[in-house]
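Input sequence (166 aa), recorded before submission:
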Amino acid sequence: MILLSPSSDGPAASAAPDYKSKIVNHKSQMGFTFPKTRRLVSNRQFKAVLDHGRRASNSLLTLYVAENDRGCPRLGISVGKASGNAVVRNRLKRLLREAFRQSQDLLPPSFDYLLMISPSLSRRLRRPDDKAALRSLVMGRIQQSFLALVRTLFERAPQDDGKMQP
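Predicted structure, token format:
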């Protein structure tokens, strides 16, 4: 998003505002970004993480982690149709992306992270009488769950072959 504000200095300010001199790029003011280079985008990338990664789950999320050669953490998100309609699935994906984006500095680099909604949460979200399940999913809870899974995977990582060490 680009914000424009008129320039108030100089004699030309009264005739016509000079918007070009005051262009502010709103995205550059954000602390963390989420560019395409930090995402898993192809089916092949997703399969590589599923085939070669380690898995951990809790009541909210399932996390797969695999090493990459990019030097930075990358995220893939998979939310199946069993989790609800498009509105629900998109909300879940936004929450997962934001949890990753805000946690990038806490994650070990050079790993791909694939986040999925746990089957038990999908079942709860499908129930028509349980609308509170979706409302209870706040960003802090998702982020806490994600970081707990990352800690679990790296604490029990094999130490003898040099793989999966943060």
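Checked by second reader. The beta strands are 2-3, 24-25, 54-57, 61-67, 74-78, 111-117.
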